[in-house]
């Protein structure tokens, strides 16, 4: 809980910038409520389900024996426009980490709940952002794709500041 009203106000302001990152297409396209990644963002026009009938299944990494995410997504970005992006491991976020189409208030509550962040408290969540190769891809998404706002380092700093301010959420 914020210690003062000023902490709450400042904390909600900091959260607002964190939300800009977590709700950006580079993040939410893989934090979906089903097993179908999304293609969204300015360069796609309207939001659409990933082409080629891609389905993540329970593995969150594709259909074993048929089409895994790594069938197209290599360890590095493709050098051609609209080519498959790449990272060390390519997968959808776990089903408990649904961020797609969540309001700032909803996502704020989700991020604070370790049962919805892979068991991570805010410090562990910040550590995850600073070291996960797939998360890092959001700031280096390849040719023609808009990166997530700020940087991983700035996002981690904002999470640490938000924690120090008591983790207030918008009302």
TrEMBL record:
InterPro entries: Cyt_c-like_dom, Multihaem_cyt_sf
SUPFAM superfamilies: Multiheme cytochromes
Keyword Heme: yes
UniProt keyword list: Heme, Iron, Metal-binding
One GO molecular-function entry: metal ion binding
Start and end residues of each Cytochrome c domain: 6-167
Entry annotated with the keyword Iron: yes
Protein name: Cytochrome c domain-containing protein
Lineage, highest ranks first: Bacteria, Pseudomonadati, Pseudomonadota, Gammaproteobacteria, Thiotrichales
